[in-house]
Structure formats: C-alpha cells, structure tokens
Design goal:
Largest sheet of chain A: 2 strands, antiparallel
Chains: A mainly alpha, B alpha+beta, C mainly alpha
Radius of gyration of chain A: 29 Å
Structural class of chain C: mainly alpha
Number of domains of chain C: 2
Strand order of the largest sheet of chain C: 1-2
Structural class of chain A: mainly alpha
Helix content of chain A: 55-70%
CATH architecture of the largest domain in chain A: Up-down Bundle
Radius of gyration of chain C: 24 Å
Helix content of chain C: 40-55%
Number of strands of chain A: 10
Distance between the termini of chain C: 17 Å
Oligomer: heterotrimer
CATH class of the largest domain in chain C: Mainly Alpha
Order of helices and strands of chain A: HHEHEEHHHHHHEHHHEEEEHHHHEEHHH
CATH superfamily of the largest domain in chain C: Cytochrome c-like domain
Strand content of chain C: under 5%
CATH architecture of the largest domain in chain C: Orthogonal Bundle
CATH superfamily of the largest domain in chain A: Cytochrome Bc1 Complex, Chain C
C-alpha cells in the first residue's frame, strides 16, 4: 500500500516537474527556516482573516443584490412589514432571516473584517517597536502600510453596502467631508455619488469596489508582501547564535506547515465562535436608509472611528471667537472639516509611511538589520510609537465620547474639552514617560549584567556583614542584554571647509544630525567585558 | 561585532575584549515526548482526539443545517445560526489545535541555522545589467549620434495622454449632469405645507404645542416620481414651538416664525448628519454624529462642537385653514459648506416661486 | 529570547483570558431584560384627590409649592400637567427627586400604586391635562410594529438609540434605556415630554402611533437573531469586543503556539 502511494506520488511529481520545473521551488521553499515567536504570528492573523473574508464574502455575494431600486418588504420580520427599502437592504434581510446559516456568514464576514484591521494594526505595531522596518525591509513596510490603507477602504465600502440608516449617515458624512475640499470638492462629490447625495448608483459602485477592486489590490500586495518576506528571510529576536547574517528557526515543511496551517483553522474557528455568539451590525435595528432619521450611537466601525473622533474634537469656533470656517472672495474654506478629516490623517499616515527613512537618517546606519531591537533599546522610537498610539486612542475615545459619557455618567461636553487639551498633552507625556521607562529598563539590564540576579539567599561574611548572594548571568542571558547597537549621535563635517567656503549639502547633514541627537543624545551603552570584569573584581 | 580570538579570556585583565562574544546557540533541551515513549504516545492520542473533535464539529454543523427547522421566530433563527456556528468552530479549532499540538510535541523542535545572503547583486550582475540596458538603448536607436528628440517627446506625450482617452469619458459620465448648483436649493416653495415625516400629513399651527418637536417633510415629497430620496435629504425640517418669551428673533426674521413656532433645516452645517436631538428645556439641538449643538431660541447658532454656521431657518406662515406653510425656500444652501456656497446664497431666493400647492 | 518570552507570559494566561470571557458572556446574558406588563388605569374619585392633596402637601409641596404652582428656578408648576405626568414622574421614581443633578434619575418608586393614583387625581383636579392611558391604548398586541419602527426611528431613535437602548445628551444628561419601562410609562412620556424630552402630543403622533411604537419596543424582547446584543449601542461596542475577545483569544493562542512544549 505505502509503496504504491509512493510510486503514485513520485509519478505525479515527475509529471508536474517536467512541465513546470517545480522541483527547484520545492527545494528552495520546503526547508526554509522561520524563527519561532508568538509576535511573528500577528501578520498571519491578518492574512487568515482575509482568507475567511474571501470565503464568507463569496457566500454573501450569492444572496446580496447590489441595487438601490426601492421594493416593499415582504418577509418574516414583523418590524419591517410593508416598509419601503432598497433591494440591497431587502436582500440583506433575506439572507439574514430566511437563509439558514446566512446570518452566521454575515457575522463571520463582519467580525473577520474587524479582526483583519485590528490584526494589521497590531502587526504594524510589532514591526514598529522591534525595528523590523529597517534596511532591507523599508519597501515591505510601505507595502504593508498600503495594505493597511486598503483594509480601511475594503472595510468602509463593505460597511456601507446593506444601505441601512447607520451606514447611510456614514456616507453622508463622507459626502460632507468631500464637499469641503477646496475648488474640486463639489465635483468629487458628484463624481462619487453620480449626482446629488445619495443618488441611485452608489451601492453598485461600492459593491464593485468592495468585491473586485480593493480585494484584487489586496491580493496582489499580499503576494508581494509575502514574496519580500521570503526574499529577506524573517527577522529574529536577539539571542545566542542569532546574527544579522543568519536565521535560526524551524523548517517550513513540516513544522510551519503544521503550525501556520493549523493556525489558520484556529483563527477561523475563533471567528466562527464569536460570530455564533455575538450579534454584529444588526441592520434590522437601524432600518433601511432614509435621510431623515439618525440614531444615538451613530459611529463607524472601529477602524474609521479615529476620523470621527477628530471631527468631533475640532471646534467650529476656536475659543468661541475665531471661526474655523473662512469666507473670502466669495469662497468658503471649511477648516473645521479639512483639518480633522483630511489634513490630520494625512500627516499621521504620512509620518508612519516615511518612518523607516526618518530613522535611517537619524542613525546614519547603512547596514542590513535582521536581528530585532528589544523596544527598550530604542527608547526614542518606542516613545514615538507609544505617543502615536496614545494620539490615536484619544481620537478613538473622542469618537466614542457619547458612549463613554452614557456608560460612566459623564458629560460628553466635558469629555470633549478634556480630549481637546489631551490630544496635545497626552502624546507628549506618553513619549516622555515611555522614553524614561525604556532608559530605566536599560539601566536595570546593566545592573543585571554587572551584578547578577538576586537570589534571596543572605550570607554573613567573616567580618559580620550580611550580604545577598548575587548569581551571575549565564552567557546566554547576558548576551541578550548586551548585544545591541550602541549608536552615537551623528558627527558631520563642518559647515565651512579650510578655505572658508560653505559646503554643499550642509543643511541636509545638519538636519540629520539634529535628528540623530534627538535619538541618541541620551543613551545607555551596553555593558562591556571590561566593565563586567571591574564589577566582578569589586565584589571579591 | 569585533571580538578577540579567545572568548574565554575575559577573566584576565590583559586580554579583555572590547565586546562580548556571541555564546552561540543555547543548549537544546529535549522534550518529554522526545525521551519518554509514554509521553510520545500520550501526545499522539491528544492530537488524534483533537482531530476527532473537528470531525464531530463538522457533523454538528451539517446536522444542524439539515435537521433544525428555521421558522420566522427570532429564537429559531438564532438557534440555527448558533448551532451551525458552534459546529464550524469545533470543526476548525479541532484541526487547528490538533495540527499545532502535533507540531509542538512530535515534530522537530531543534532549531536549525541558515545563512543569509546579501541582497545586493554581485558586481558582475550589476555590470551585466548596466551593459544590457546600454545595449538596449543602443538598439532602440535613440542614443549617441542618432538622438531623436521628437520621437522621444511625442512618444512620451502620447503615453501620458492615452489614458485620458479612456478616463475622460468614463469620469465624465460618472458625475451625471455635474450641476452642483443643486446644492443651493431644496424643493420648498412658497405656500407649500409642512407635513409630518414619514406619512406626509399636513400640520396645523394649533397641533404644535409648546415643547413639541415635529419632524417635517414638504408636502408632495412622498409622491415624487424621481429623486425623492435626494430631495428628502435636503428638505427635512424640524418644527418646534417655544414659549415666545424664550425666543430671540433678529429684526430681519421677524415674520419667519409664527407665535413661537420655528422651522429649521435638520441637516447639520458641519458634515450633514440629521440634527435631531432636541432638548426642550434648554432649547438645544444636538447632532448625534459629531455633537454640534445649536441654540434654537437664538437663531440656531452654534453653542458647542465642530459646526461653525447656524442651521438655516425656513420662513413659515399659516394658511387660511390653519395649516403651516413655507414662505419660500431656504435663503441659503442647507447642509455642509462647500467652496462656492456663497454664490448660492441669496436673500429671498425662490420667494416668488409659487409652484406647489396651497389649497 | 525564547527563554525570556517563556517567563514573561504565565502559562495560565490563556486560561484566565478564557475564564474572563466566559464571565463576561454570562454577565451579559444575565442582563438580558425581561419586560414588565402594562398597568391598568384605574378610575379615580374625589376622595382620591383629597388623599392625594395630603400626600402632595407632605411630599411635593416643599419644591412645587402648596398650591402646586411651582417655585421659580426650582420646580415647575403642575397646574395642567395632567395625571399622565404624575403617573410617569412618580411611577418611575423620578419624583420626588433625591438630589439635584443634570436630570432626575429613575429609581424605585417611592409610593404605592394607590398613592400614585391619588396624587395623580389631585394634580389632574388642578387643571385639564393628559390622562393616564387605558390598558387598551398601550397594549403592544394591538400595535403595528412596522409602523412603530418608522415612527420610532424618525422621532425617538436619535436620543434613545435605534431600538431604545438609550444614549447621551449634552452636559451629562441622557436619554434612558426603554426596555424595562412599562408601556404605560412610555406612552405617558411621549404625551407629556418629561424633562429634556419634547412633547409628542396626539396631533404629532396619534394614539395608535404611540401604541405602534410600544409594539416596536416590545418586539425587542425577542432579542437579536444574531446572538448576544452587546448593548445594541453600535459599532463602538462591536469594535471593543472584536479587540478584546476575538483578537484576545487569537493572541492567547499565538502565545501557546509560540511557547515551547515541555
């Protein structure tokens, strides 16, 4: 039996190889090594929830009718009897209430979408805090960044498809934001909606965007993302034997075939569990879109919430006297919309996209980095990361301020006033505290290396002194704590050469030097063997 | 990382290296299943049990789909979906945990080392690439003595322009008539009755008692054949009655209200949500989307939040039968601002436009 | 690093996470509301009004005045508010007010049903106002839930949420959750416009319309076909649960996957 299977497999392999030369690929891929760490699986969560999105999405397209034609509801739901609604909404109700398992698929799809975006953000945070975006991975950071933006587009276009009151008001906000763009805003709005809001064409257009354009782009970029991961080989955390010139791990086949493959089923299973138990996007509560009603708790899905929060945060009148909408030469410029909805996200995302280059200018390091940083060993970067997260979280909380106010019996006005100040103060504070914490942890590492671990054992010396016994670190433990780059602030050539002529490119160098000083002025150098020897000497 | 040759010598003062030596891969400790055949058997049984859970889950999912009857009752819909979902959960999680447990306990866990190769191409490859490109440029006949600026120029221009041949008509069609001046007016006309949203029945002034809030659509909206929803999106109005003593009325709007009854556009001047939360004690109108707050007793001016402009007021009057009617359209565009908003703003716009019905 | 990672995450962490999750689920399930039945309106007599006057003098007059004409800046006049207003305010425990705050808060009613009807009879005798609705007027069985849905979302959802889960107003005020409010009290609230709430008189929403709204709210008792409702407060709750439960459980699994087997 076994022999026969083997012969059949060999025959098939031969047949395929003679037509594709797949042997070379298999040889290359099968035993590729991947380092083992839980945080390296965050990107996989995103990938797998995307696969679940595709699987459940195909099911949904079999029932969803992307049409804004008005029909009268005639289904089992008592609260919708005879109500006029678009076919998009009616077909969503049909698949939810009349197709066994249909509602489950909708909920799987929607929960996966929330998970997809959440996993992308978490994965990005991991890459950021460990410095995995450094050379040679800057391009892959950009690919990942673009995927993050595309995930927002995919999510928002899908959220709007059922044509319910909640998402309809969301679209109306998009329309209002679009209109505020100077000069061309009105035309962009007409272009998107095919005329005045809401028009009769938007849902079909969003549908094509949601099922074809955006997922197509995501697929292509995911392929590129993974190709680059294979090309670069995975990064690894510091540890004995792990260098910038090697990768230490377990082979793709069979270990990661089983681990990563199995993990797909785990992700799918947990999504199915959540979708089986928790309602998501109950469109039958909101009702079919009508431009007149709106409900308390009108918010977008979490990944767009930060924009909503920014819109809420921005005052229409600064200090009640300076208008944030300007009228001049007969034109209107709505800074109260442009700043929070377009300029601020633009700066935020722009900074994020360019971050690998900003840091490369600061370090001036041209080498390939394959061993990751422990976040404490890059205090400024870690501080920036936490500041960005706190900035984002404040916007999300402001976007939920009515919910928070209602839950904790606070005034939403007070919350807004608090966040208006907090948006400036808290990220700065978060940066400062995080950097201090990171430096403190580095100092603690130095202590550990120099004086060893506390054992809790107290001994009495001959001369009567009591002392706790410190156990020196093992070579492995010490190596993790001392093997990081000690980068000094950039030194640059002077502005004028010896003949007093101003050097070209000085300004750019000066900028890089300033950046470098921000990063490395205050730094804790790793313990050197000499220092350790001295410390040990002092103990004896 | 520069190191001395003898890693064990950092005890002695003379040969202390500048930095620590990489100790190499840590000792690999075997797992229980690697050394104990019983543990190995146990792990194997656990994996098999997890796979069995998956099979049970598949049976639960398919069985629930086939055997459970989904009626119109919410309970039964919830039950069917939940059972299928739990079945899928077990089917997936069983395979997943089984495979991972297998990998963790029975597959290799002794880490291997693979060397990385510099990503930079070798010098020969680079030189070869440059030479190939040079040869290609040579063969194309646009370099050296035979430079052809016209050819290159027209070629590039054609390439840049060609997409327009497709995009221009495509984008041109997508905005319908591009008549953005529609932003500037709504279907309200002189004499048009204010009617209840959603059923469209007219409202008498006497119906609107103090503290009342009526959600209003124009008479005839529900009968529109085309663009009903677009018109509704602009024309919705909130009709409120305050104690006339609480109402501050500017001189130029003296005749826009009727005995404390005022009508304001329901569309927020921020980004266009329906502003509908009316607090009758404070006379404040709150937008649930971004919390712009308008003071109805003072011309709906902004008292909090991101909006800058007051809500546009609809001038109203009462007809012979006691029904509330509009005096005209709004005198400014309703809803969010846009670049040319002021061009669509005029006093008394459509004031003498008396189509619509006043029976 | 692996050695460090093993120490940093306690092996019980996933278990604790799952237990926390289960506790949350149980909590939510327990919180699923049950509706209370409609009160029947009872006929009142002159004696009731006399009894009511005594109760009023003892419990309400300190703010509303002995003649119930109110005190400026403290409490409004009750002349003409009708029995419905009294039944709502006292029946939901909002009155007598315990402490001043952004708004009067619903709590356990301070008076028995009989006392409330006596108070209502007294206030109704001061001037004509809306009466307490009859049992038939508030019977959800007789209402049209679909029409109720359209009326509710046009007139009520902006404050009370799409299915009556409640929502925030300005300056710490809020629109309460309606799931445990009795049909009679819902009807009376629409009729009288308590506190921040506007008045929805019978010319605005007809008595049948009000009953339809009650039928729509009653239909919410069946719960959601999708499972637990997460408070029906919309995407914010969904997002939070997505992060905490879905991503939380999955990350807990990654920690297990990444940990070396013993």
């Amino acid at each position: 039996m076994g022999a026969r299977v083997n012969t059949a497999a060999a025959g098939t392999a031969n047949w395929v190889d003679e037509r594709t030369s797949i042997g070379g690929f298999v040889k290359f891929f099968a035993r590729k090594l991947f380092p083992d760490h839980w945080s390296f699986m965050l990107g996989e969560i995103a990938l797998y929830s995307f696969v679940v999105l595709l699987l459940s999405g195909v099911f949904l397209t079999a029932f969803f009718v992307p049409s804004m034609t008005i029909v009268e509801y005639d289904g089992p739901l008592a609260t919708m009897q005879g109500v006029e609604m678009s076919e998009a909404f009616a077909s969503t109700l049909h698949m939810s209430f009349e197709v066994p398992g249909g509602l489950l698929m909708r909920q799987i799809h929607h929960w996966s979408a929330l998970l997809f975006t959440a996993a992308i953000v978490t994965h990005m945070a991991r890459v950021f805090f460990t410095g995995a975006f450094r050379k040679p991975r800057e391009l892959n950071w950009l690919v990942g960044f673009t995927l993050m933006i595309l995930s927002l587009a995919a999510g928002f276009s899908g959220y709007s498809l059922p044509d319910d009151v909640l998402s309809g008001n969301g679209l109306r906000i998009i329309e209002g934001v679009t209109r505020s763009i100077p000069i061309v805003g009105e035309y962009i709005s007409y272009w998107i909606f095919g005329g005045e809001f809401p028009g009769e064409i938007l849902i079909p257009r969003l549908f094509t965007m949601h099922v074809l354009l955006v997922p197509g782009l995501i697929l292509v970029l995911v392929a590129l993302h993974l190709f680059l991961v294979f090309l670069h080989k995975h990064t690894q955390y510091p540890g004995g034997g792990r260098k910038d010139t090697n990768v230490v791990g377990l082979p793709l086949f069979p270990v990661y075939t089983a681990k990563a493959g199995g993990f797909f089923f785990v992700v799918f299973g947990i999504i199915a569990l959540v979708a089986a138990i928790f309602t998501i996007n109950p469109v039958w509560n909101y009702g079919p879109y009508d431009p007149s009603p709106v409900s308390a708790g009108t918010q977008p899905d979490w990944y767009i919430l930060f924009v909503d929060g920014a819109l809420r945060l921005m005052p229409g009148w600064l200090f009640d006297i300076i208008p944030m909408e300007w009228e001049f030469w007969g034109y209107t410029l709505s800074l109260n919309i442009l700043i929070p909805a377009l300029i601020l996200p633009g700066l935020f995302f722009g900074f994020l996209a360019l971050y690998p280059w900003i840091e490369a200018w600061a370090t001036g390091d041209r080498g390939e980095k394959h061993v990751l940083d422990r976040p404490r060993n890059a205090p400024v970067r870690t501080g920036i990361g936490v500041a960005l997260i706190s900035f984002y979280v404040i916007l999300v909380m402001e976007g939920s301020n009515d919910i928070i106010a209602n839950l904790f019996h606070l005034s939403l006005n007070d919350l807004t006033y608090f966040f208006r100040i907090g948006i400036f103060v808290i990220p700065a504070l978060a940066f400062w505290i995080t950097r201090r914490l990171a430096i403190g942890l580095q100092r603690k590492d130095r202590e550990l290396v120099l004086h060893g671990k506390e054992t809790g054992r107290i001994v009495r010396h001959e001369h009567g002194e009591y002392q706790e016994v410190h156990e020196p670190l093992t070579d492995q433990e010490r190596w993790i704590l001392v093997s990081y780059d000690d980068i000094a602030p950039l030194e640059i050539e002077p502005e004028y050469n010896d003949r007093g002529v101003r050097r070209k490119g000085y300004r750019w160098d000066h900028f890089k030097q300033r950046l470098s000083r921000i990063y490395f002025e205050k730094r804790i150098s790793p313990v050197t063997p000499e220092e350790l020897a001295e410390a040990q000497h002092a103990h004896h | 990382m520069s190191t001395t040759e003898n890693p064990t010598s950092h005890e002695s003062e003379h040969t202390t290296p500048e930095s620590f030596e990489d100790p190499g891969l840590p000792y690999h400790r075997p797992r229980r299943a690697d050394v104990d055949p019983k543990a190995e058997k146990k792990a194997e049984r656990q994996v098999a049990a997890l796979f069995a859970v998956s099979i049970v889950g598949t049976i639960v999912a398919i069985g629930s789909y086939m055997a459970l009857d989904m009626t119109d009752e919410i309970d039964s819909i919830r039950f069917v979906n939940m059972m299928i979902g739990l079945g899928i959960f077990l089917a997936m999680i069983g395979i997943g945990f089984g495979a991972i447990h297998w990998a963790k306990t029975l597959m290799r866990d002794h880490e291997m080392v693979e060397e990385r190769h510099a990503l930079r191409s070798s010098e020969e490859s680079r030189a070869g690439a440059i030479q190939n490109l040079k040869d290609g440029v040579e063969d194309s006949g646009i370099s050296g003595v035979k430079r052809r600026p016209v050819l290159v120029g027209t070629g590039l221009s054609a390439l840049l322009l060609a997409p327009l041949a497709v995009l221009w008509p495509q984008i041109g069609n997508m905005g319908a008539d591009w008549n953005t001046s529609n932003f500037g007016h709504t279907m309200w006309r002189k004499g048009m009755r204010l009617t209840r949203d959603p059923d469209g029945t007219p409202i008498k002034a006497s119906d609107v008692t103090i503290g009342s809030a009526f959600h209003v659509i124009p008479e005839g909206l529900n009968e529109l054949e085309h663009h009903k929803i677009e018109e509704k999106a602009k024309a919705v109005v909130l009709l409120l009655r305050l104690d006339p003593r609480d109402l501050k009325i500017p001189d130029d709007r003296k005749d826009w209200s009727f005995d404390g009854i005022v009508a304001y556009s329901k569309i927020c001047t921020h980004v266009g949500c329906p502003v509908a939360l009316y607090e009758q004690q404070t006379h404040h109108l709150l937008c649930p989307c971004h919390q712009s707050t308008f003071d109805v007793s003072d011309g709906a001016k902004v008292v909090f939040g991101p909006a800058k402009r007051p809500l546009p007021q609809l001038p109203i009057a009462v007809d012979d039968e006691g029904y509330i009617i509009a005096q005209s359209d709004f005198h400014e565009p309703i809803g969010p601002s846009y670049w040319t908003r002021l061009k669509d703003t005029s006093d008394g716009m459509h004031a003498d436009d008396s189509e619509g019905s006043s029976h | 690093m692996n050695a460090l990672a093993r120490h940093r995450y306690h092996r019980a962490a996933p278990v604790v996470l799952v237990l926390l999750l289960l506790a949350l689920i149980t909590g939510i399930a327990a919180a699923v509301s049950t509706a209370s039945s409609a009160d029947a309106a009872t006929a009142t007599t002159a004696e009731d009004a006399a009894e009511g006057q005594k109760l009023f003098a003892a419990n309400c007059a300190s703010c509303h005045g002995l003649d119930a004409t109110g005190t400026d800046g403290v409490a409004p006049s009750l002349v003409g508010v009708g029995a419905a207003a009294v039944d709502f305010q006292v029946g939901t425990g909002r009155m007598p007010m315990q402490s001043s705050g952004p708004q009067a808060i619903a709590k356990r009613a301070q008076f028995s049903e009989e006392e409330i009807s006596q108070l209502a009879a007294y206030v109704a005798s001061l001037g004509a106002g809306p009466a307490i609705p009859t049992a038939e007027q508030v019977d959800p069985e007789l209402g049209d839930a679909a029409n109720g849905m359209e009326l509710f979302r046009t007139n009520c959802a902006m404050c009370h949420g799409s299915v009556g889960g409640g929502g925030a107003l300005t300056q710490g005020k809020y629109a309460p959750n309606l799931w445990e409010t009795t049909p009679t009290h819902i009807y009376e609230a629409m009729l009288t416009g308590p506190q921040s709430m506007p008045v929805f008189n019978d010319a605005n929403i007809t008595p049948e319309g009000k009953r339809d709204i009650i039928a729509y709210l009653k239909a919410q008792d069946e719960g959601s076909p999708g499972g637990l409702r997460l408070g029906t407060i919309g995407p914010v709750a969904e997002g939070m649960w997505g992060w905490l439960v879905a991503l939380g459980l999955i990350i807990a699994s990654t920690v297990w996957i990444g940990a070396r087997s013993s």
